Amino acid sequence: MNSLGELERSIMDVLWRSGTWMTVREVVNELSDRKLAYSTVMTVMNRLAAKGFVRRERDDDGRTWRYLPAAGREAYIAELMLSALSETGDRIAALSHFARSVTAEEAEALREALPPDREQP
Predict the structure, then answer these.
(1) Where would I find the beta strands (DSSP E) of the chain?
(2) pLDDT band at 119, cuts 50/70/90?
(3) Residue 121: is it exposed, middle or buried by C-beta count within 10 angstroms (0-12/13-18/19+)?
(4) Quick check: 72 and 16 in contact, CB under 8 A?
(5) CA-CA distance, 83 to 3, in Å (whole number)?
(6) Which stretch is the leader sequence (predicted)?
(7) d(CA 119, CA 121)
(8) pTM, entire model
């Protein structure tokens, strides 16, 4: 899985928070404290589209691209976790270490997310 660079993460954070289609100009305005050039943000957003992190479509005027995350932040984080897990030589040990580091509430959420046990033949 492709990871996101610092500026890519900032742009994705804006898009994830918005939850709606956004133009490059709207994203630039949201990142105004960073003093980024329009062309810089446009280039990064086009790269995010090429990597499959965002979808894009033409606006009603046919000249402006609008962008929307291809998946939610949670799906992206889950993919990062799976990618990190695949890097270990011992997945069970890594999972065990992870399981010991979560809170009781998080452990319960994990239990609830697991499919019910299936009867063994």
Answers:
(1) 22-23, 54-58, 65-69
(2) low
(3) exposed
(4) yes
(5) 10
(6) none
(7) 6
(8) 0.77
Max intra-chain CA distance, the chain:
63
Q: Is the pLDDT of residue 87 over 90?
A: no
Structure tokens at 47: 């790269």
Q: Spell out a b/e string for 73-92, using b for 16 or more CB atoms within 10 Å of the CB, else e.
A: eeebeeeeeeeeeeeeeeee
Residue 70: its H or E element: none
Please say whether the beta carbons of 65 and 59 come within 8 A.
Answer: yes
Residue pointed to by tokens 């990064």: 44
Q: State which H helix or E strand residue 96 sits in.
A: helix 91-101
Q: Distance between CA 95 and CA 120 in Å, rounded?
A: 23
